[in-house]
Design brief:
Blueprint lengths: L2 H18 L15 H11 L3 E5 L2 H14 L7 E2 L3 H7 L9 H4 L2 E4 L3 E3 L4 E4 L1 H4 L10 E7 L3 E2 L2 H9 L10 E3 L19 E7 L3
Parallel strand pairs: 1-9, 2-3, 3-6, 4-7, 6-9
Antiparallel strand pairs: 4-5, 5-8
């Protein structure tokens, strides 16, 4: 099912139930859990992330162009640590000690999208051995809808069972610049201006 249709269908059903006055449920009835995709989008936006949905590769390219235009960036100001992404968008594939100052934005993939807290799980596959504080303040993540999972435990299991060597430097991006809901877990973390371009799996 189309990603957005799934979200809107859930919202409409919820609103319809609430407006009809028939939402009083017995305390013995099991709690209806919000679908994974809907929960991720809600939590991701709550964290301050900027979400762009794409039905196909053409829309991915259009959304990327819109992000560049919105921030008045130059194409030469973007870079990636992923050779495939670098070749796809004709970007620089390098990272020096001064890259954070010279480069405005990193484009990367990710391991998984975590619904429970709206975070993005990444590893050395995406950022090598760089710490979050060493990466640019602006990051664009490219992901697909089949990367949506419920929690970090599922993500770690998925990484462990994917048939290849387990990557190092596994961490999650959660605290974004627009996030006002800071708790003690965010102390000392490096907040980022983060865009997510999510592609519907074909």
């Amino acid at each position: 099912m189309n990603f957005f249709k799934n979200i809107f269908k859930t919202n409409k059903q919820t609103n319809k139930t609430s407006s009809s006055g028939k939402d009083e449920k017995s305390s013995f009835m099991p709690k209806i859990e919000t679908p994974t995709d809907n929960r991720f989008v809600q939590n991701f936006i709550k964290n301050g992330g900027k979400f762009l949905y794409s039905e196909n590769e053409n829309e991915v390219n259009k959304n990327l162009a819109l992000i560049i235009e919105e921030n008045s960036w130059e194409k030469s100001s973007l870079f990636s640590l992923d050779k495939e992404i670098s070749n796809r968008f004709n970007l620089d594939y390098s990272f020096s000690e001064n890259s954070k100052d010279e480069t405005m934005c990193l484009i990367s993939t990710c391991e998984y999208l975590i619904a429970d807290d709206g975070s993005i799980l990444i590893s050395s596959n995406q950022v090598a051995e760089k710490k979050l504080s060493e990466l640019p303040d602006d990051i664009i993540i490219l992901a697909k809808t089949d990367q949506l999972i419920n929690n970090i435990s599922e993500g770690l299991s998925g990484i462990k069972n994917n048939g290849t060597s387990i990557p190092s430097n596994i961490t999650n991006l959660k605290h974004f610049k627009d996030c006002n809901d800071k708790d003690f877990l965010s102390y000392g973390s490096s907040s980022k201006n983060l865009y997510l371009i999510l592609l519907e799996n074909q």
